[in-house]
Design goal:
Blueprint lengths: L1 H10 L6 H13 L9 H14 L3 E5 L5 H9 L6 E6 L2 H13 L6 E5 L2 H7 L4 E6 L6 H10 L3 E9 L22 H20 L3 E6 L5 E6 L6
Parallel strand pairs: 1-2, 1-4, 2-3, 4-5
Antiparallel strand pairs: 5-7, 6-7
Length: 228
């Protein structure tokens, strides 16, 4: 049923571009863990949000092969947004640079190499949409750093991906079909993300909504009384 529903949603949503389809297919063929990449429907969602919000500065924590960066790029043609993407893994840095070269994204996309917490410490100004999709055990630290440094614009949005951790955030029994070789990894992620979702709910600076979309998406914004 889930696959049927997803198919229906895809058929009744704006399609992703040919470049996004091409990158999706290449990533799936090249990387065994390509399920870490955002889905085409999620890519369409990110493009939609960027266009609607008229984002002018968008950083993302975690680049993988650059699929989400491509979505942000296409969604901000009208605003010519600055897109900053942070990546640590040398293999994914190479794949991302291939993407930025192949699809001619280098005019607005900057890839910063190294640990995300170090890169975040160097960022200045504020950002309209911040996408968090890296080490799940560091989500809480990343978001706290963003809030403490006031990197989020007053009307900005933080979008944290994979908050369900394949169901392991909700219960270690939630996904009996999860392959044994990745179950320990996602179980650890689930434990960390339970702490993260508690943090988001209890931090008095932000409003949060956790959506049952994709692998769980948390949306965060400043409380309205802090931006008046």
């Amino acid at each position: 049923m889930a696959a049927t529903v997803t198919g229906y949603c895809i058929d009744h949503s704006n399609d992703v571009s040919g470049d996004m389809k091409d990158l999706w297919d290449w990533t799936c063929g090249e990387f065994e863990d390509s399920d870490k990449m955002s889905s085409p429907l999620q890519g369409a969602t990110m493009k939609f949000l960027a266009e609607y919000h008229r984002a002018k500065r968008t950083p993302e924590i975690g680049c993988y092969t650059g699929y989400s960066a491509l979505a942000w790029y296409e969604g901000t043609v009208g605003t010519q947004a600055e897109i900053i993407t942070l990546e640590l893994d040398p293999k994914m840095i190479g794949a991302s640079r291939r993407t930025f070269d192949k699809y001619k994204l280098n005019d607005r996309v900057t890839l910063i190499e190294g640990p995300a917490q170090d890169s975040l410490a160097k960022l200045t100004g504020t950002f309209d949409i911040i996408f968090v999709d890296a080490n799940k055990d560091r989500y809480q630290g990343y978001v706290k750093q963003i809030l403490d440094k006031k990197l989020l614009a007053k009307d900005g949005l933080i979008m944290a991906d994979n908050v369900f951790a394949r169901g392991m955030t909700i219960s270690t029994d939630a996904n009996p079909e999860l392959p044994a070789k990745v179950r320990p990894y996602w179980t650890g992620c689930g434990k960390a993300l339970r702490s993260f979702t508690d943090f988001c709910k209890n931090d008095n600076r932000i409003d949060t909504v956790l959506l049952p979309l994709y692998d769980g998406v948390s949306l965060l914004k400043w409380k309205s009384e802090l931006t008046d």
